[in-house]
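Let us work through a complete example step by step.
Step 1: write down the sequence.
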Amino acid sequence: MNLFNNPVVGNKFFARERELNFLHRKVEDLKNGYRHNVAVLGKGLIGKSSLLLHFLSGLDTADVVPVYLDLSTLSFAGFVDQFIGMLLHYNYKDIENETSADLQSLINLASSDLPGTCKKIKIIYSHMKTANKERAVFQELLDLPPCFSKESGKFCLIVFDNFSKLTDYKLGEPFSILGEKIMLQKMSLYILSDRPYINLRNILSQQLSLLFGKFQMFDLEPFSPHESLAFIDSRVKDVKLSAELKDFLVYFSGGEPFYLDILTESISIKAGEKKLLVVTQKDLSRFIYECIYARFASVNQYFSRIVEKFSGNGYLKEPIKILNAVIRKNKIAAIIEDSKCSKAGIHKLLEKFIMQNMVIKNGPLYAIEDEVFKMWLRLKEIEAIPQLKLDQRAHTEKFVNEIRQLIETFEKEQQRSIDNKILNLIAAFDNEKVTVGKAAHILPVFKHIHTEYTTSQDALLSGHGTKLWIFSIFKKMAEEDDILNFIDYYKKLKHRVARKVLIILNGITPEAKLLAMKEHIWIWSSDRLNSLLNLYRKARIGTQRNAPFLKAKGEV
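Step 2: predict the structure and record it as tokens.
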């Protein structure tokens, strides 16, 4: 079994209620004559396939026929067979002894009540026998759902997982063809899913006719800190794990369901084997090493395969050096100096890393967001140092201690005040033009940064340079009165305020958000804040329990 192609459905599926409800509403809209096709975007291992398959498994309607295709695993011939086979299989799935029928048996079964559909299928397979007919086959195949719907009276739900793989087939312009066909199919709902490659949104908005095809895109995000903690509690029941170590797991995993799953499974199994009642920091460090970084651990092998794609003859040294330089430095000149690799080679590899979402580039800044991957890169760098030729036990202990140091550093950072972290972040701005949310803005140099006002619940910082920025930090849920107080504060200032920023760490009410938007106040969620902290090489903010704020005025 491939650990990385094993979607989670049924009782093991966790959270995602909002996304599931959204997809179910799209099906109801389809049946009511309001079709909105969907694109689900999200990085690898975020759970896109799990979401889609769990959604389909809970689809209890006789008048909607689902067709799910994972294009990453299919040849073009397999794509055609699976498309036709699943369409017919789910149409006849309630007929006794037919659920296991082969494709030809299903076609024979359909010949009496779906003659037009069967005629179309015969045309498709006749084209398949002719060389260089893939484009014609694809066009005919996409005409199959409306033909089937006309004869059966049923709706079609077509799911293309990893849909960018259509470019691997000899189809010419597959997305233009798909976009043209989608516009005409009123009884078919298309759900497309893939990683957010750089040009993918352009494909969705241009070649797939976002407007006329009525597509709706949503990004599948990691679990929230609250969901991540709930996940840990649901999986680790028979052994005590301190709040601090749970918070570390949330931070380390980044809320990624895949990482949380293998980490909690490892904790439960290994703690059970050792008959532990309490998992200590040292225990957790060893468990993490064994389930992720040990030589034969699946994640270790997975990362190795990814990086090997970018190295000549499987030689990992240069990619590892460049990626570790990205961890330490955020601008290209510093990355080149740190890695000591050729400038041309670095630019070429960084472009490839960005295309694969291994590295992010925001304006002039580079970063890696995945903490699990960062630690793997760090351990690979240590492993490559010649003087560390240790026996296996000493080798393992060295790496376990590296992980333990990471936990200790995280716990120390958790004790630092949040507004102090934010103060240090905005002190690092250096006129870079970066994207925060959906808009790109220049983050100016501030000569002075003041803590203007602080309570036990919020803090107020101001940055002075050629322009004045005001940052209002809310640890609690931000409400309408809070925004009104913030507006009243900055309107009384003698100097013109160039930018007002709300930093929201624990949510904002709809009324407060609307008011802030009307006043042209930026809203930085904890996710956006953490992305900026990562870009500027500052420690990210972890799970918010009772994190402290500064108790006195200060300045940087």
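Step 3: interpret the result. Residues 3-219 form a domain with the Rossmann fold fold (CATH 3.40.50.300).
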